[in-house]
């Protein structure tokens, strides 16, 4: 069993390797090794090994026999399948979380979203900020819903769909902020039905935007 310090280091390694995958600095199909990543991240191999196991468990890395682990090539079909799973589970989780998230947490999220909407341009920092708020909001929903297993499933499929995020669809930035605000407002009111509807609408809009983007290619 991992000790607290070991777990923290493994999570740090996890986040750093996840970022390499999501920013495509580790390309789909690329083989990854403990030694090379440990050198790159300036960490020991033990937390890197634990992080790779977590990423393998989430399906972002696949084992290639004696060759090691490979960054999973994400097909658009895989992405849409993962998004469908999210559409089935996340509205219900939002319903379960309504009225259970501390008001100060929701007020903070709301203020951050409104600050982004007040900005005139869509910069890389905006995308990073939206991503951070997205992580915080979904994390709070999962925690408040009180179903850790469902939360873990959603977390795993969210990782898979984040490969197709605001870097790919920058035009979605402000719409995403407005959609998140509707979710936050419903959660704050304790209106489970409205929270579920807002979450379903958000995921549906993401899906339609992807379909439209692919149709142009």
Short précis:
The protein is mainly alpha-helical and 217 residues long. 72% of the residues lie in helices and 4% in strands.
For the structure shown, list the relevant keywords:
Four Helix Bundle (Hemerythrin (Met), subunit A); 4% strand; 72% helix; 217 residues; mainly alpha; 2 domains; Arc Repressor Mutant, subunit A
Description:
The structure is a single chain. The relative contact order is 0.13. The model has no long low-confidence stretch (mean pLDDT 86). It is built from nine helices and three strands. 72% of the residues lie in helices and 4% in strands. The chain is mainly α. Helix 4 (76-97) packs across helix 6 (124-145) and helix 6 (124-145) packs parallel to helix 8 (173-189). The protein folds into two domains: 4-71, Orthogonal Bundle (Arc Repressor Mutant, subunit A); 76-216, GntR ligand-binding domain-like (Four Helix Bundle (Hemerythrin (Met), subunit A), Up-down Bundle). It is globular and about 50 Å long. It has a three-stranded antiparallel sheet with strand order 1-3-2. It has helices spanning 4-22, 34-41, 45-57, 76-97, 103-118, 124-145, 148-161, 173-189, 192-216, and strands spanning 31-32, 61-63, 69-71.
Number of helices: 9
CATH topology of the largest domain: Four Helix Bundle (Hemerythrin (Met), subunit A)
State the low-pLDDT regions, or none: none
Radius of gyration: 18 Å
* Strand order within the widest beta sheet: 1-3-2
Helix/strand structural class: mainly alpha
State the domain count: 2
Hey, roughly how much beta strand do the residues contain?
A: under 5%
CATH arch. level architecture of the largest domain: Up-down Bundle
User: What integer is the average pLDDT?
Assistant: 86
What global shape is seen?
Answer: globular
N-to-C series of helices and strands: HEHHEEHHHHHH
Question: What is the oligomer described by this structure?
Answer: single chain
Query: What is the helix content?
Result: over 70%
Question: For this structure, what is the CATH homologous superfamily of the largest domain?
Answer: GntR ligand-binding domain-like
Number of strands: 3
CATH hierarchy class name of the largest domain = Mainly Alpha
């Amino acid at each position: 069993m991992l000790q607290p310090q070991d777990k923290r280091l493994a999570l740090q390694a996890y986040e750093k390797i996840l970022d390499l995958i999501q920013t495509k600095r580790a390309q789909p199909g690329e083989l990854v090794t403990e030694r090379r990543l440990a050198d790159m991240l300036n960490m020991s191999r033990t937390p890197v090994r634990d992080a790779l196991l977590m990423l393998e468990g989430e399906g972002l890395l696949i084992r290639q026999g004696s060759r090691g682990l490979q960054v999973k090539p994400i097909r658009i079909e895989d992405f849409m399948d993962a998004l469908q799973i999210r559409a089935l589970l996340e509205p219900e989780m939002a319903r379960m979380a309504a009225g259970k998230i501390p008001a100060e947490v929701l007020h903070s999220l709301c203020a951050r979203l409104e600050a982004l909407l007040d900005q005139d341009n869509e910069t890389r920092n905006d995308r990073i900020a939206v991503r951070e708020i997205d992580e915080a909001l979904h994390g709070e929903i999962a925690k408040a819903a009180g179903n850790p297993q469902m939360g873990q499933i959603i977390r795993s499929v969210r990782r898979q769909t984040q490969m197709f995020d605001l870097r790919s669809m920058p035009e979605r930035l402000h719409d995403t902020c407005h959609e998140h605000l509707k979710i936050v407002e419903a959660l704050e009111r304790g209106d489970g039905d409205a929270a579920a509807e807002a979450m379903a609408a958000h995921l549906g809009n993401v899906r339609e935007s992807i379909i439209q983007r692919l149709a142009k290619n």
